Amino acid sequence: MQEKSRELRVLIADKSSYVRLVLQDIVDSEQDMQATGVAADADELLGLLGADEADLVILDCDLPGNENLLVLKRIFSEVPKPVLLLITQEQLTLDLLKQAVELGVYGIVLKPGRGRYANYRSIAAEFLRKVRAVSETELYNVQRRLEYLQQEMVLLAERPVKRKSSPVDTIIVIGASTGGTQAVESIVSRLSPELQAAVLVVLHLPEKFTRSYAKRLQRLTPLKVVEGRAGSLLRTGKVIVAPGGKNMVVEPFMGDPANLKVGFTDEPTPLFDQPSLDLLLRSVAQCAVRNMVGVVLTGMGKDGTLGASYMREQGGFMVAQDEATSVIFGMARSAIQSGYINKVLPLQEIPQFLNRYVAGQQQVSATDSDYEIERTGV
């Protein structure tokens, strides 16, 4: 009984029976929450709220009866409850945001599309995180809620107008350990200034070292180089260095699987494999990006091998540094021997390959991959 009392009680209100079913299943799959009711319109929702001690309401902004936010006004005046609002990007304006937070909205989630069977499971992680955020005390303050949601709007506004700089369709992940700082510098300094890809860098470095390393990389390239921060958006021409001691991943921004941001995970990994290349590669493989390239460089251990398997399963392309140019031929050797590597290259050829691959000037085939592995004698 004590376990049940700690569960978040959630009411779901959406006009679509499909969406109600999917969201209910997502909620009920979690141990710390349960969907205690679903509603298809305003009257049904208000009736449920009168009889249910819900902790929060998941409310579709397009719910029948919510014209001019009438449902929010009725909830606020009749049975006040925190509300997580499902909304389209077109509906999201500062005026609506100000009204919504005054009426109990503590968070927003962008819908994953307008189709009848939009993929709501693609926003499950973001959705669940914001459901759990109802317990954060700072969100009980109206001003703090408004500031919090305005920050999300600012991130959305970072989307450049030019199409070619819109949310990335190509991600390059580069990972290394021993000898990796020099190897990464060699690659990043030779990447094309016009590179139409986001680049994520993982080095097994201690905390506080990666910030100065990112600044050092910035002096070597016209591409923008930053240390990863929670919420930082992935963009073409941007190099993001994973902070030392933290396992960086990518995740959908406000539920949009085509628009990605930096996140972090507490999932355990070997102490000396932090930041984890495996976890970053897996998160990239699980996102909706069109082109994915992983690069495993010099270093001890096997970090990157498991991640390479996820990348290959989802159509990604994997490159490994050869033994001759590796300081320690451990990570790359493990990945190559696993069979998940498409191409083995000496360090000096990797940036040229990435430039050609991203530019679409080189056709990569299975035959080519087999030839490269055979040529290196691995």
TrEMBL record:
Please tell me one Gene Ontology term that the record gives under cellular component: cytoplasm
A single GO BP: chemotaxis
Q: Which reaction does it catalyse?
A: [protein]-L-glutamate 5-O-methyl ester + H2O = L-glutamyl-[protein] + methanol + H(+)
Keyword match Phosphoprotein: yes
Superkingdom of origin = Bacteria
Q: Where is the catalytic site?
A: 177, 204, 303
Note one Pfam family from the annotation.
Answer: CheB_methylest
**What GO molecular function terms would the record report?**
phosphorelay response regulator activity; protein-glutamate methylesterase activity
Gene3D superfamilies noted in UniProt: 3.40.50.2300, Methylesterase CheB, C-terminal domain
Give start and end of each CheB-type methylesterase domain.
165-361
Keyword presence, NADP? no
Per UniProt, the keywords (alphabetical) are: Chemotaxis, Cytoplasm, Hydrolase, Phosphoprotein
Q: Which residues form the Response regulatory domain?
A: 9-126
| Residue positions, PTM 4-aspartylphosphate | 60
Enzyme Commission number(s): 3.1.1.61
Q: What is this protein called?
A: protein-glutamate methylesterase
Species per Swiss-Prot/TrEMBL record: Pontibacter actiniarum
